[in-house]
Structures are given as C-alpha cells and as structure tokens.
Amino acid sequence: MKYSIALSLRLFVLFVIIGIWIYYLFYTKGTIRSPLEISIPEAKGRRFGLVLDVRTPEQRSSLGYYPNSVPISLEKLHTEVPLDISNKKAWILVYSNGDEKAQFAAEQLFQQGYPNVRYIRGSYLQLMPGSQ
C-alpha cells in the first residue's frame, strides 16, 4: 500500500512536470522579448538618427512607409548602413511587417557594432502621430 501511494505521487509529479514543459514549449514560444525589441510607446518617445524599412520594395510602395525611413534589403545591411550613419552610437530603428525580418536586421546591425539599434515587432503605422 505504501509503495502504491509513493508510486502514484511520483507519477503525479512527473505528469505535472511534463505538463509544464509542454505548456512552455508550445504556448510561450515567441513571448520572450529580445533586448533589441522596443515597444511602440518607447519608440514614440525616442529620437532615432536613422529609421530603416527592411520590407520589400513592393510592400513599401503598396503599404506606404514611415516618413524619412530608408528602404534597405537585408542583403545590403553590411554595405549600405555604414554609409548612411557614421556614428555607431546613434539610435537606429528597424521595422518590417511584424515578421522576423526587423529582428534579424537589428541583430545583424548590433553585431556590426551598433549598440543602440532597436526594432519594433508591429507595423510602422503604430508609430504615426495620432495612432494608439
């Protein structure tokens, strides 16, 4: 009798641990915020020396763009960004369509020595004056 209670307790604990692991694996994916991600209110409150649009030219022309943003492809980050901004300590904002391209670009720029690069996860429209 003692052994069946101990075994039941161990199985219960094992199932709880497995359940927590499954929850973490499937339901928290993508919720851990990157240190380079900036919230919309934070971005609205900061002045950026350069705003980069890493969407495709088709997306930029059909969906519009943030005023004075610079379109750049991910392939040209290494060669064109250093020409646009010589001060590596300047604040840079990167955006796309809410996909991973902005995060990827920000991480690449950070690795190139731009410590103040940030990206937004959502649309640039949220940055526009009067948006909520």
From TrEMBL:
<dbReference type="InterPro" id="IPR036873">
    <property type="entry name" value="Rhodanese-like_dom_sf"/>
</dbReference>
<keyword id="KW-1133">Transmembrane helix</keyword>
<keyword id="KW-0472">Membrane</keyword>
<protein>
    <recommendedName>
        <fullName>Rhodanese domain-containing protein</fullName>
    </recommendedName>
</protein>
<feature type="domain" description="Rhodanese">
    <location>
        <begin position="45"/>
        <end position="129"/>
    </location>
</feature>
<feature type="transmembrane region" description="Helical">
    <location>
        <begin position="7"/>
        <end position="26"/>
    </location>
</feature>
<keyword id="KW-0812">Transmembrane</keyword>
<dbReference type="InterPro" id="IPR001763">
    <property type="entry name" value="Rhodanese-like_dom"/>
</dbReference>
<dbReference type="Pfam" id="PF00581">
    <property type="entry name" value="Rhodanese"/>
</dbReference>
